[in-house]
């Protein structure tokens, strides 16, 4: 199942699609939730009836057409995350190599964790701000993991039971700010620096999360082209490690790192500029495209 937050008639609406069928507002199916976070928190009670209703619609062409959403805009699936997005740095072997030239400690560090402050996630087709104090704007396509329930002190073997689904995140980065402060929080957390979407794909439909094609294009030029099988720390290992002594609430988003091909690793770097279109793609999820303002 694919789950969306959309704007319809000026309102935020949670919607769902089964097997890439039409999109249906949950309210039209008799399911009332205020937002995606509430849906995730109550998923154990909602999943079965929602699947049943969507399956019935897919089998009934006339009813399907009548109830399908029309004239809507896709928003970030979780527009306002409950907590900061938890991120893994240099979590692909090839990206670790290209990043080490500019960030010394990544050569010897264990898994690098940092956070992105997200006032509001940037929607698909939304603008990435181009701040005048940022002279090295970069892109990073990443597999985003969404947790389905509060997670504390779990093992890697248990971690899968806590995953709700997956999405795409562009970990937009101000490299000059990131390097100036010798930590990554500020350079990653400016407003508009977390494009997300277009949807959340539920755990049962994603396939193997460690065998997905992951790519990023800038103005149709392929910059990043890899597979999630090249992650250093797996999704389950990251969830386990983060949950040791720290509660990850339901709806928590974890960005799992990016492969090689970012602007910082190019010689010379080709930073993003106004008007550039950045398209992030992950197999079985979809496409997230944004333009630099």
Key terms for this structure?
Fumarylacetoacetate hydrolase, domain 2, alpha+beta, five-stranded mixed β-sheet, 20% helix, 8 helices, ten-stranded mixed β-sheet, 2 domains, 29% strand, 17 strands, 293 residues
The structural domain count equals 2
CATH topology title of the largest domain = Fumarylacetoacetate hydrolase, domain 2
End-to-end CA span? 32 Å
Helix and strand sequence = EEEHHHEEHEEEEHEEHHEEEHEEE
The averaged pLDDT comes out at 94
Structural class: alpha+beta
Question: Can you identify the CATH superfamily of the largest domain?
Answer: Fumarylacetoacetase-like, C-terminal domain
Helix content: 10-25%
Q: Please count the beta strands (DSSP E, at least 2 residues each).
A: 17
- What composes the largest sheet? 10 strands, mixed
CATH class of the largest domain: Alpha Beta
| CATH architecture annotation of the largest domain | Alpha-Beta Complex
Low-pLDDT sequence parts: none
Helix count, per DSSP? Answer: 8
Radius of gyration: 19 Å
Shape estimate: globular
Percentage of residues in strands: 25-35%
């Amino acid at each position: 199942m694919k789950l969306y937050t959309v704007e319809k008639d000026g309102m935020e609406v949670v919607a769902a699609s089964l097997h890439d069928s039409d999109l249906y507002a949950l309210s039209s199916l008799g399911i009332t939730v205020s937002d995606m976070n509430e849906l995730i928190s109550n998923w154990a009670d909602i999943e079965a009836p929602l699947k049943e209703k969507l399956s019935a619609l897919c089998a009934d062409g006339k009813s399907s057409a009548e109830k399908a959403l029309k004239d809507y805009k896709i928003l970030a699936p979780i527009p306002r995350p409950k907590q900061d997005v938890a991120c893994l740095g240099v979590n692909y072997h090839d990206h670790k190599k290209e990043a080490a030239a500019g960030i010394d400690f990544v050569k010897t560090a264990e898994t690098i964790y940092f956070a992105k402050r997200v006032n509001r996630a940037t929607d698909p087709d939304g603008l990435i701000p181009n701040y005048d104090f940022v002279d090295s704007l970069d892109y990073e396509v990443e597999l985003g993991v969404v947790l389905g329930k509060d997670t504390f002190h779990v093992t890697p073997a248990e971690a899968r039971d806590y995953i709700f689904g997956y999405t795409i995140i562009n970990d937009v980065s101000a490299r000059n700010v990131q390097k100036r402060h010798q930590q990554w929080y500020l350079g990653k957390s400016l407003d508009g620096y977390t494009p997300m979407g277009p949807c959340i794909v539920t755990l049962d439909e994603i396939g193997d999360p460690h065998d997905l094609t992951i790519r990023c294009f800038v103005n149709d030029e392929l910059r990043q082209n890899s597979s999630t099988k090249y992650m250093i720390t797996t999704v389950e290992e990251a969830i386990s490690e983060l949950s040791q002594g720290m509660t990850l609430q339901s709806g928590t988003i974890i960005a799992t790192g990016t492969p090689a091909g970012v602007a910082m690793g190019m010689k010379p770097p080709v930073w993003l500029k106004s008007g550039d279109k950045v398209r992030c793609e992950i197999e079985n999820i979809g496409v997230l495209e944004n333009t630099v303002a």
